[in-house]
User: Fold this.
Amino acid sequence: MGKNQPARNQTAMIPPTILALLAVLGCQLAGEALSHAIRLPVPGPVFGMAFMLVGLIWSPRLRDTVRPLVDTILGNLLLLFVPAGVGAMLQLGTLGRDAGPLVLAVVVSTLAAISIGALTFALVARLTGERPDTEAEVQR
Assistant:
């Protein structure tokens, strides 16, 4: 650079969408590297999401950078379920043959999730000293 030319911000030359993709994929790559390095049975994208969460908490600039990309991805999230739906349709014979155990598993896991959620809520309410409002108290 010559003496008369001002220094340019290098990140200003990269389009914002590319910066956002680099941030997201960089976190996933870091998560994959960590997963392979420590050899725990935790998928790399889980570590990557944790890295991204920490980055989003600590850096308002990162939040502003990835927000448009995230809005676009969430706006088109339904399209990501099309391949899974096609795969399920291709396996209708297997699904029909194993319908009983599948329905049982879905019902039991749903009831377990609801029960655990309610118990967790009650435990947190007890630990924080707050009582859940009842309908009778609200009407008074």
